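During the second year of the project, the team shifted from modelling isolated chains to modelling whole assemblies. The rationale, set out in the original proposal, was that interfaces cannot be judged from single-chain predictions alone. As a representative example for this report, we include one of the complexes processed in the last quarter. Its constituent sequences, exactly as entered into the pipeline, are reproduced here:
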Amino acid sequence: MNQQEQHTVFTGLIREYERMIFKVCFMYTDNPEDREDLYQEIVLQAWKGYKNFRAEAKFSTWLYQVSLNTAITGFKKSKRSPLQHTADGGVSEIADVNDDYGYPAQLHSAIAQLNEIEKAIVMLYLDSKPYEEMQEILGIATGALRVKMTRIKEKLRTITKNN
Amino acid sequence: MELEEFKEMYNSSLAGALVLSTDLNDVIMGKSRGPLAKLEKNLVQLLYILPIFIIAFGGIVSLVIGFGETVRNPVFVLLFIIFFSEFLFSVSSYFTVKKMQDNIGDVKGALINKIAMLKRFFKWHLIIYIGLFLLMPLYLELNIHFQFTPNGVGKINVFIRLAWYVLIFFPLYKIKQEQLRLNFTWYLDELNGVLEQAE
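Output from the structure prediction step:
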């Protein structure tokens, strides 16, 4: 496949899976500017890595890996978070940041209080990914993922109760 | 609210939200704006310091005192050692940052790779700088012994000389440590923090 064909196939795949990239951006950023920057960064990183992508892996799994790696380790988050965390771990103000996208602010405010890995686990869970695929994406054993999932559910329950 | 209820909300959200103003071709042809890409750019600029120093400073001094004298001049040699170690530091930092921008593989594996890479980098950095800080006083002592003793400079008390070295090299070391902290240590701490979350 020459460069032009590769380019065409890649942009087609990104269009097909851009909803997935958006989910990662929403999960890891709090404002539209950072979201757009992260989106562009993910696409760029995916393009750089695409030359080495082997078709035996699922594209969506591979793209999740690139997106999460970029969001977690390759992108410095802005300090302009609209959520003001209080000392007791609560949120003093629930920002209605995502109304324009129809993304529930209540969900966003609860998830914003999870750590980076917990966010990734929740996102894959909400996306109905089986534990085996979650393991492939995150590199965490399925047993450990199940334990973490139980803890996350409890944590979210507490957070939403307090809000 | 339970996570299952969230799941329903989550899947019905974002459905019509993906109206992108961004042209994918522009993104692909563009450059990364992440913090590592910025660091890489700064490191490339540092790579020019050594050649500029050799050409500018060395050239001018050579014109005044001749090439042979320049390469034996202790000030020139010391500055060369400092800039050369800076150059080595920049080269190793550059390749480390370049590799760290690779976002392929599972999340935990990528974290472990990046942490190992940074630790290796710190080890080499330490070797380079210990070497530098041993080489410079050694060179000065040899210089004093072989070149300046007849003029009486070598008679300077050894403790004064040691104090002088400490005064020069300690700030240099502190500057380097701060530079390392600003560029890399915070990143290593952050990566370690995320890896702990994955354990």
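The mean pLDDT of chain A is 78. Residues 82-163 of chain A form a domain with the Arc Repressor Mutant, subunit A fold (CATH 1.10.10).
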